[in-house]
Amino acid sequence: MGDIFKREAAANPEPFTGERLTAALDGQTQIEHYHRYLFARSFCHGLDVLDVASGEGYGAAQIAQVARRVTGVDYAQAAVDGASASFPRDNLRFMQGDARSLPLGDASFDIAVSFETIEHFDHQEKFLAEIARVLKPGGLVIISTPDRDIYSPAHTGANEYHVRELSRTEFATLLSRHFSDVSVLVQRPIHGCAIMGEAGTAVPPLVFDRRGAAHFEACAGIPRAPFLIALASNRPLPPIPDSLYVERDDLDRDLIALEDMRALFNKARIEIANAQAKLTELHLTVARTTEESLRIQANNQSLGQELALARGSLRSFLGTYLPQLRRRLFG
Questions:
Q1: How many whole angstroms separate alpha carbon 301 and alpha carbon 284?
Q2: Which helix (H) or strand (E) holds 94?
Q3: Per-residue pLDDT, 319
Q4: Using H for helix, E for strand and C for coil, what is the string for 161-215?
Q5: CATH number, domain 28-251
Q6: Full DSSP string of 37-48
Q7: CA-CA 20 to 30 A from 226: which of 34, 58, 106, 119?
C-alpha cells in the first residue's frame, strides 16, 4: 500500500476561462496540472517552497502537505484572495506579485515551482533571473511550458493567453543561462496501459503509440509530447524518476455510460414521438371541434336572420293590416 493523501481542490472554484486551471474544469487539463504538482511534491519534503503563478492554490496546498513552508505568488489579487480563503494552512501563505519582480528576499527558498507560466509574458530572462535570485545556493527549480513545435504547430490557431511560446531547444537554452545543470522531461496525457517492474530500471520505457485504426508506432520514449517539464539547479540534480499518473483503470466506463445514455436517448425519442402523435390527434380533434362550432355558429346566424325577418313581418302586420281590419269590422 502506497502513501495515501488528500487531493486538494477549492470548494468554491472560479469559472474556467482558459488562462488558469480551476476546480470547475475536469478531464485532461486537470490531469496534466495535478500530475506536475504531484511530481514536484516528491522533491519538497521538509523544504521551503515557492509556487510562482499559484492561481487557485490547489498545487501549493498539495505541496504544503509535505513541505516545511510554502509561499504562493500570483499576479491576480482575486486569485490570491480566493486561494487564501480556500486553503488556510499554518505553513502556507499566498501573496500578490509579478513573476518578473518577485516581492521576496534573496536566497529564501529551497525549491521553486512554476507551471505553465513563462509563456504568458515577455521578459522571460528576467523571470528566470528572479527565480535564481530567491533560491538558496544549490536550490532547485521545477518549471513547465508547452513545447511550441508540438503544442502550436504551424497553421494552427494561437492560444490567446500566450505571449511567447518556446521550443524544447529554446527552453533548455534559456534555463542554461541561469542554471548550470538542466534536465528536460516531456509530458503527454494518455489513455492506455502500463507495464512496470517492481523495482526501477535503467532501461528506457518501450512505448507503443497507436497511429490511427491500422498502425502502431514503437518508440523508446513518449512521442509528440506537448509539454516540457525542466528541473534546473546550480548543483548536480537529484535522481529524477519517471512518473505515471493513474486517473482510473476502468477504461470502458465512458463507453458503458455512452451506451446507457444512448438507451435513455432512444427511450426519450420514443416518448417524444408518442407525445407528438397524441398532440397531432389533439390538434385534429380541436380542428374538428372548431369546424363544428363554426357550422353551428353559421346555422345560428341563419336562424337569427330568419327570426329577424319573421319579427319584421309580424311588426308590419300588427302595425298596418291589423288597424285596417279593425276599422272594417268595427267601423
A1: 25
A2: strand 92-96
A3: 74
A4: CCCCCECHHHHHHHHHCCCCEEEEEEECCCCCCCCCCCCCCCCCCCEEEEECCCE
A5: 3.40.50.150
A6: HHHHHTT-TTSE
A7: 58
